[in-house]
Specification:
This protein has about 280 residues and is α+β, with helices and mostly antiparallel strands. The protein is built from nine helices and twelve strands. The strands form three sheets. A seven-stranded antiparallel beta sheet has the order 1-2-3-6-7-5-4, sandwiched between helices. A hairpin with a 6-residue loop joins strand 4 and strand 5.
Length: about 280
């Protein structure tokens, strides 16, 4: 039986069935149950063979019966160099719930992020949860790495770079701090004369009253380092980088000056990372 959860974003409810606990957008509660995610082992079955469409590794995309939408279900994994040595199970659902809440708040503030739908945890017999976060699947999108690997022509690339710059600016203006902004955490949807961009995977994201120029630049350069690491920086080129930066800064001359002032230190950081990538 669903019950209201005042501490959760507006419109979300809690569901529980045996070992399974779910926090879900009430609009999608019934489609979720019809997927079988509340049944024992339902999460594992849903994630079996996860891989999603091209460019969406490690996710399952599931039809939501009775709704003209699909669910993008991403299992939680421990990251960092210690990740492989730590237990897979999570002691609570605090981490995915924090991501769901941050995503909902940022979306309400105008950030270009996916619509959050649910958090699900299936408790293991020995304790701890297998957990996943679900968002509305963004139809017609690919991640930016896949887009670049397809070697788009110059016009398409520059439109995408500008769209990405605008999206990251809106994310930061809404107070968003991304824990790992890289090229695969940007989704692109091409239209006949324009491109939409979304910022995804808000695990460990934070919301601040105001994101400083220094913090913004650190995330922008982290994104650029990911282009170097993935071997696609030359594909973006100087014009693509300039178009992204111009779209991000817009007409804000003070922000542009502040970002440029921090570039020497961040370029040194990039040079050090290049040595590691080799």
């Amino acid at each position: 039986m669903a019950r209201a959860a005042p501490s959760l974003p507006a419109g979300f409810v809690r569901l529980a069935s045996g070992s399974v606990e779910v926090v879900v957008d009430a609009v999608f509660a019934q489609p979720l149950e019809r997927l079988g995610l509340l049944a024992p082992g339902g999460l594992a079955r849903a994630l079996a063979g996860a891989g999603g469409p091209t460019g969406r590794g490690r996710v399952a995309v599931l039809p939501l019966d009775g709704a003209s939408a699909r669910l993008c279900l991403r299992p939680l994994r421990r990251g960092g160099w210690l990740g492989a040595w730590l237990p897979d199970a999570f002691s609570s659902l605090a981490r995915p719930l924090a991501e769901l809440t941050a995503t909902a708040r940022l979306r309400s503030a105008g950030a270009p992020v996916p619509r959050p739908l649910l958090v699900i945890g299936d408790r293991r017999e020995g304790g701890g949860f297998d957990a996943a976060v679900g968002t509305l699947f963004e139809e017609g999108t690919v991640d930016a790495l896949h887009f670049l690997e397809e070697r788009p022509d110059r016009e398409r690339l520059l439109r995408a770079a500008a769209a990405a710059g605008v999206a990251v600016r809106r994310f930061h203006d809404a107070g968003g701090r991304h824990a790992d902004l890289h090229v695969k955490n940007l989704l692109l949807r091409e239209r006949p004369e324009s491109v939409d961009a979304l910022v995804i995977d808000l695990d460990h994201a934070r919301i601040e009253e105001s994101v400083t120029p220094r913090a913004r630049l650190r995330e922008l350069m982290r994104l650029q380092r990911s282009l170097v690491k993935r071997g696609v920086l030359e594909q973006v080129g100087a014009r693509g980088c300039a178009r992204f930066f111009a779209a991000y800064a817009g007409g804000d001359r003070a922000l542009r000056r502040a970002l440029r002032a921090g570039l020497p230190q961040e370029r040194l950081r990039l040079a050090l990372h290049r040595l590691h990538y080799r």
